[in-house]
Amino acid sequence: MPDGEKITSEGDGMKPRKSASRFKQPRRSSFRGNDSKKKNQVKAKIKNEESECGIPGLKTFSSDSSKKVKSDLLSVKCSVSDISKQKGLRPIVGLTAYDAIMSRAVSNSGVDFILVGDSVGTTLLGHATTIPVRLDDIVRHTQAVQRSNPNCLVVADLPFGEASYSFDRLLESCCRLMQEGGADAIKVEGGKDLADDIEKLVATGVPVLGHIGLLPQTVKAIGGYRKYGTEREEAESLYTDAITLEEAGCFAIVGEMIESKVATKLAEQILPPLIGIGSGSGCDGQILVTTDLLGWSNGAIPSFVKPYCDLNGMISKALHGFVEDVRKKKFPST
């Protein structure tokens, strides 16, 4: 998309496809120019009120008091409402986990939510894509994550194909993830085509995290992974997807592999937080696959990932050390 060009729903000739009844009277026709200014004012106010413990919005306390406040707040589990309210205040952070030990580590890092993603298929289960992951897999791994009692929201991924059945089947699958798995919310891949069903899920009491841009569950159909929104028509389609998911009641939306300028504009326009993965720094937050940022994988990691350590190397060194010590009779020592 050319520099300086704005995405609009009417002003630049863009007319989103009205696939759902909620488009009777769109609440806005273009990106609002005052949003960035308002966000900066809010951020400045919060920065002035931050306490020594680093929790936004708290006025200065003594060292002991700030530690107690931080401890008390960390003991309260994050809710979908908490996630939504962070928009414009501070970046939201999410990471993946699939078992109790990783869940404990991720929760203790201070993230806002854990995603039990269908990426479990490509990271732990050895599949080439996420498509082979089944509902039973996500239920099982969500149970494992919840057993560590994480102090953050736990979101379970709805696996391949489940959103394409009847609404009754979709609701049943979400109920399993929440009732059996213990998920606090469900992530659903797809935009305007799924908005009606998502709206009904939310009305039923199922909190939904939307997902637009690159949809890994469609990798077979699209022929591989790529950036989205580089062409104007595709950028307009992303805008329509985002607005329909907002209207459907999603508490936040994941934007994957979206061209950074388009992602920034979307984050400024929509009311729910836009949580990016490979979509630039202009989103309301970021999520990554935890094993990617730890440098612990079976293959290449995405180009947008910044590895924070090399677990592959560390683990390999430790395991080789153990094998050598046993063979040289250095272990056990007695």
Structure commentary:
There is one protein chain. An 8-stranded parallel β-barrel has the order 1-2-3-4-5-6-7-8, surrounded by 6 helices. The protein contains 13 helices and 8 strands. The relative contact order is 0.12. It is globular, with a radius of gyration of 21 Å. Helix content is about 40%, strand content about 10%. It is of the alpha/beta class and about 325 residues long.
Keyphrases for this structure?
single chain, 334 residues, alpha/beta, TIM Barrel, 2 domains, eight-stranded parallel barrel, 13 helices, disordered N terminus
- Could you name the CATH homologous superfamily of the largest domain? Phosphoenolpyruvate-binding domains
Runs with pLDDT <50, length 5+? 1-6, 8-34, 49-63, 68-74
Total number of domains? 2
Oligomer: single chain
Q: Average pLDDT across residues?
A: 85
What proportion strand?
5-15%
Count of DSSP E strands?
A: 8
User: Helix/strand-derived class?
Assistant: alpha/beta
CATH level 1 name of the largest domain: Alpha Beta
N- and C-termini, Cα separation: 68 Å
How many individual helices? 13
Helix content: 40-55%
Q: The CATH topology of the largest domain, please?
A: TIM Barrel
Q: What summary fits the major beta sheet? A: 8 strands, parallel, barrel
Q: What is the CA-atom radius of gyration, in angstroms?
A: 21 Å
What order do the SSEs take from the amino end to the carboxyl end, as H and E? Answer: HHHEHEHHEHEHEHHEHEEHH
CATH architecture of the largest domain: Alpha-Beta Barrel
User: Which descriptor suits the 3D outline?
Assistant: globular
Strand order of the largest sheet: 1-2-3-4-5-6-7-8
